[in-house]
Structure formats: structure tokens, C-alpha cells
Request: fold
Amino acid sequence: MGEIVRIGVFYDGTWFAYLSDFYATAHPRAARIALDGFHDALRWHVHTETGHALDDCVVHEAHYVRGRIETPAASFDAVLAAAGVTRHDLPLHGGKEKGVDVHFALEVWERATTAPLQWVVLVTGDADFTPLAARLTGRGVRVLVPVVDAGLPAGSDAPPPAWTPRTAAPLRAAATVTPAFDTLFAPADREDYPLRRPFVRSNGAVASPVGSPRGRRRGTVTGWRAGQPHGFITDSRGGSWFASRDELPEGRAMLPTGTPVSFTGSPAPSPGRKYPRAFSIRPE
Reply:
């Protein structure tokens, strides 16, 4: 056995939630990313990029950082645990994330420099992490930032997706390599691929990011003050949504914090907005 190549995978939870919805609802694959299969795809990429033996390319650790409600979806927690991903739960403030970016950057830096890690994978598109990527590469750590290629597979007749998760140009420039997610996943389409597949079909109802709901999401009101025309909902996967009283049943002006709800909507925020908007909100 040769020298072990240690890979660390760090998930910006909010961005990854949008990415997962994109692949499930807008991409031709129409399936969610399987975390263990994604980790194997990263191992395969590092193996081919460096020439190290596949068995020597190891996902040493993985971390998922996100602001979350006190009782997030147990099913997703089980998925994280099964894939060996360490959760970092930060409390929400009025339905909004605060301090998550700082925690994410500190966790990446500490693990990359003390493990140490030869490769760091940043599953995010946020330009705020550009200095982090630049500092890591300056220390000789190879930084991989997967990006979304809005194109379609060769020969596809489907229209291009109306929305894709974006990766900020400065972050791309600071990274060592920026392979498209589809490039990472492509080897698994071969019959002789020896590792786990990076996609799993989901039977759960999801809402289309192009605005045509195919099911209802579920969540909890996590911030709505009396007299305010709007509040926030946290969905069952930890995502924050803007909620307006205009989307409530007739006669309701607000919903108390802690109210379980179902709703529809696109996971993509409207231009200039930080949070996606919930539509057709119904107390459960």
C-alpha cells in the first residue's frame, strides 16, 4: 500500500439542500445525490487526478454544517450518520442562520491543518469562502470545489434547467480544481465502475424548482411575531423559507412559532432574495 491520501468533505448544508433539490427536480437524472456514492466519486476523481491507487484515496472525514431547528428530520440525520458525516447544528435565530459561515470556515481550517488533509472538498458556492480556499491552497492543501454544469448530457432532447445552484467566480478561481458534478458522476454510469453509485431514487414528494408543485413540503414555523405580515418556516430538511400571510388560509393573519405546516414552493430564492418563498401554507 502506498501513501494514504486523506480527503475531507465539508458540506455547506443550505447550499447542498438546494443542490439535492436541483438534481431531484430539475436535472435529467431526477434523483437525489447519495452521500456515500458521492464520496466514492470524489475518491475516484482524486485517484485519476493524482495517479494514486484508488484504495489509498480515502475520505478521512466529512462534516455537515447548518443552522437547524431543534427537532430536524430524523430520516436525514440517519442518512448523514450512515455516510459517516459529522453534523454541526447551529441554532436558528428568527428562522435565519447566523454564524454558520464562520463555524464552517473554522471547522475546515482546523481539520485541514491538524488531521492533516491533503485534499479539501468544499460543497458550497458561497464567495465568502474564497479567502479560506486561498489560504488552504497557500499551505499546499488541494481544494476541490465541485460546480454545477447547467448543460445536459450529450444527445439529450430535454430543455436546459431553468435554475441551477451557482458557484461564485472568486471561489472557483481560488480553488485548485473545479470539476462539474456531472463530470464527477459520469464514471459511475459505466458498467465496470467498481464503487457505489452516486444517486438514489426518492419516493418522497418534492416541489418543482420551476414553480409547478409536484407535492407538498412539510416544516415548522420558526419565527413569526404577532402583528408582522411575514415569518419563517424551517422545512423537514433544515431549510429556511420566507412565509407571507398572503399564503395563509383565509382568516389567518399569522401562525405561532412551532406550528407544523405543509406548503409548496421552489427551493430557489427569487432574484435578490436570500430565502425561497413558501406558497399555499396550511397548518397541519
